[in-house]
Amino acid sequence: MRVITGTAKGQKLISPIGLSTRPTSDRVKEALFNIISNRVLEARVLDLYAGSGALGIEALSRGAKRTVFVDSSAKAVDTIRKNLSKTSLSKRATTLKMTTQIFLKDFVNQSEQFDLIFLDPPYKIDSIMLNSIFKELVSNNVISDDGLIILEHSSKRAPVSLKEKLNFKFTRKYGDISLSFYGLTRKEQNEDCCLPR
Fold first, then answer.
1. For residues 26 and 48, is the Cβ–Cβ distance under 8 A?
2. What gap in Å lies between CA 167 and CA 148, rounded to an integer?
3. Per residue in 175-195, pLDDT tens?
4. Could you tell me the CA-to-CA distances from 167 to 36, 48, 87 in Å, in that order?
5. What's the CA gap between 176 and 111, in Å, rounded?
6. pTM across the whole model
7. CA dist., res. 12 & res. 89, Å (int)
8. H runs (alpha helix) in 7-161
9. The sheet that has 143-154: what strands, in order across it?
10. Which of 41, 60, 77, 176 would you call most buried, defined as having the most Cβ atoms within 10 angstroms of its Cβ?
């Protein structure tokens, strides 16, 4: 697992030891950043269920303004901080040890919104919990008006059926892993960054 491009290109990242984390493969990560490439520069990024921090760190390496990493595991948080140190990206990062649910309900600065939100929960998470997370992202104004939420999930699972103001945009499948994209607006069909590839 490595940083693909940007200021930290080629840096190898470590994964949390002894946890059942599921780091996003370099292949899937590269495909993801090819899709969102023109959105990353100066973006405010939120990496939920961050694990090793690979997605948020890739965004920082490519010029994101800042990334907030959230994970409930002390081992994961320690790993993220080590990876940030290795890549010299700590100054633009905040790492928080807490559950995604607590962060969304209690720790969101209402004056800050995020342009890119990476959401990589355990595949066994149920639809009720996942919809609750999406609800909090919208009701707490966590996502910016033209922001994107990228959900990594099993290809065996259908994209989330949303009841909130979020719009499902499209899904890309990479073997057993899928990436589904959501946003508040419907204008993606007119934007190069998120057209089907």
1. no
2. 10
3. 989 999 999 865 544 344 444
4. 17, 19, 35
5. 38
6. 0.89
7. 14
8. 26-35, 37-40, 54-61, 74-86, 100-106, 127-139
9. 93-97, 66-71, 44-48, 114-119, 143-154, 177-183, 167-174
10. 60
| 151-181 per-position pLDDT tens digit | 998 888 776 666 667 888 899 999 989 999 9
What is the distance between the alpha carbons of residues 60 and 57, in angstroms, rounded to a whole number? 5
Domain made up of 26-184: CATH architecture: 3-Layer(aba) Sandwich (3.40)
Residue in 40, 26, 30, 43 with CA at minimum distance from that of residue 144: 43
Q: State how far the alpha carbon of 128 is from the alpha carbons of 7, 95, 145, in Å.
A: 39, 26, 24
Q: Where are the domains of the chain?
A: 26-184
**Core vs surface per residue 153-187: b (16+ CB within 10 A) or e:** beeeeebbeeeeebeebbebeeeebbbbbbbbeee
| pLDDT at position 197 over 70 | no
